[in-house]
From TrEMBL:
GO terms for molecular function: cupric reductase (NADH) activity; ferric-chelate reductase (NADPH) activity; metal ion binding. It is a multi-pass membrane protein. SUPFAM superfamilies: NAD(P)-binding Rossmann-fold domains (SSF51735). The chain crosses the membrane at residues 261-279, 309-331, 352-373, 405-425, 437-461, 473-495. The keyword Disulfide bond does not apply. GO terms for cellular component: endosome membrane; plasma membrane. Residues 79-166 form the Pyrroline-5-carboxylate reductase catalytic N-terminal domain. Keywords: Copper, Endosome, FAD, Flavoprotein, Ion transport, Iron, Iron transport, Membrane, Metal-binding, Oxidoreductase, Transmembrane, Transmembrane helix, Transport. This is Metalloreductase STEAP3. Gene3D superfamilies: NAD(P)-binding Rossmann-like Domain. GO terms for biological process: copper ion import; iron ion transport. It is found in: Endosome membrane. It comes from Phrynocephalus forsythii.
Amino acid sequence: LHNPLLIIPQLQSRDNGWHSTSKYLMQALKALSALSEESSSPSLTQLNGMPASDMVKPLLGHQNVESEPNLAPASGSRTIGILGSGDFARSLSMRLVCSGFKVLVGSRNPKRNASLFPSAAEVTFQADVVKKTDIIFVAVFREHYTTLCDLSDELSGKILVDVSNNTEINHNKESNAEYLAALFPACTVVKGFNVISAWTLQSGPRDGNKQVFICSDNQEAKHAVSEIVHKLGFTPIDMGSLCSAREIENLPLRLLPAWRIPVFLALGLFFCFYTYNFIRQVLHPYIRDKKNKFYKMPVEVVNTTLPCVAYVMLSLVYLPGVLAAIFQLYHCTKYKRFPDWLDQWLQHRKQIGLLSFFCASLHAVYSLCLPMRRSHRYLLLSEAVKQVEKKADAWVEEEVWRMEIYISFGIMALGLLSLLAITSLPSISNSLNWREFSFIQSTLGFVALVVSTLHTLTYGWGRAFDENQYKFYLPPTFTLTLLVPCVVILAKLFFHLPCMDLRLRRIRNGWERGRQKKV
């Protein structure tokens, strides 16, 4: 009933006609009028502060809190203190005010910094903030913690939320939160909000990470901070005791930790295939025929290398699944732990697949740019002159069909890879159930590997059996790329045989060899 346009299809489905439409229309209008009366009265979330639906709206508009009644703190709302006047403190105060909290900001120079904060937030001296609040966000750098030692008596019994980060991983022997707890042993220190940027606080959880990692030795303090996290529109993640603060502080400093191995793998494959193609396409004609083919290095050699990397990387996504099936068949159980290298391989399949899609996309762009090169135009004109002189027909039926099929398979493979890449995004995968996600990533992924294999085979055609294609006795590059994918495809087909498929299903359902059923 929130959308009146949805009433008409419902009326059609109920009556299969319009003879009793007026009856249901009157009921719908009564319901809409009741709904409008409910919406005219203030809701509980509106009385408490910012409505829940508005929690994800960005705060970059710099609304005037005094002119917006919903943004002003409600009477009886909890008072939160902030020590510090930097960018993070300003963004945090804005989010707290818009979430219905009363905010006190402690600064060494309140008059100068008051204009930087929302008008609903009270900017005063640090001592006043400590006296009037029980939960205080410490938004200052580690080296400035000692400036708060003069307030140690007033801070006794308070909850201090440390939001600081280091500049390097494991820069100090102890975490910032543990150092703060050592300076103020009478306080309860909670580590949190250090993985949330000032931009995320202003733009809303939809435009940034929603998870807030917190840890503390006091459960009540963690619960209190978790409630604040919820009201700000984020999701608290309990990481345990305060000794976990070191790990939490290292999280924002890590640069794509899950991508390190896949990226090095892709770079290693690119270097190997590029060197191999350089020897065949550039070095061989220069040594044998004294032809200068070095102009091929920036585009043509790269374009020959990219599909090799994409094809092999795609096969490496599904190879660990084959090895895991062999491991389970050999041990006749699913409860035996995989080796560490296989476990790490299985965890990096998403990154390997996305890098495969990236290389395939670059290959498509490079292929479209090949006719634009000046060298290609010169060669095309040269071939045209030769055809005119010989008065021969340049049409080769076999090559025409090979090229048409080869390009068609390539487009289909790139389309399937695009589907795999899109569904691996969290925003898309979260909207799919497990069967849908498994069908796309497993079944359609295997189809993408088969189509890529057909694309490679039609590209090579009969050149694998042409002795002129073996430069320095080196086989064509596409023959090397076929090794791993063909092994994966044959193994997958073998495991889909009824006898093997039944045994694998039994093992994955909990069956073990030598296990006797207890009656």
